Description:
This protein has 2 helices and 6 strands. With 124 residues, it is an alpha/beta fold.
Amino acid sequence: MKRLLGACALLSLLAGCASTDIIDPHGYDQTGVASYYGAKHHGKRTASGEAFNQNSLTAAHRQLPFGTRVKVTNLKNDESVVVRINDRGPHTRGRLIDVSREAAKQLGMFSSGTARVRVQALDD
């Protein structure tokens, strides 16, 4: 029985570590829900290894490569901002992108916490 429980625990751990496939950003254009993360994450390491700065124009995306610049447009008010992908997420089902607190302010979604957005990768 202990071996069975150990095997189940190991399989659960490995399943949780499964990585998401990184996609080619060229032509990426999706709509979905954005959220933001800020104060409690400020200064913590992102998945890319850099410290999160809630005052920078950065974002988390599940599949776009680190360093990808994307234009995020709030579909309700047409405000937009360019952010750089430096983290993985969002970790909430149904969300497309997590933006920094500063990006959320510029998008006009700071009070609401979420917004329907369009995310377009920029070719540099």
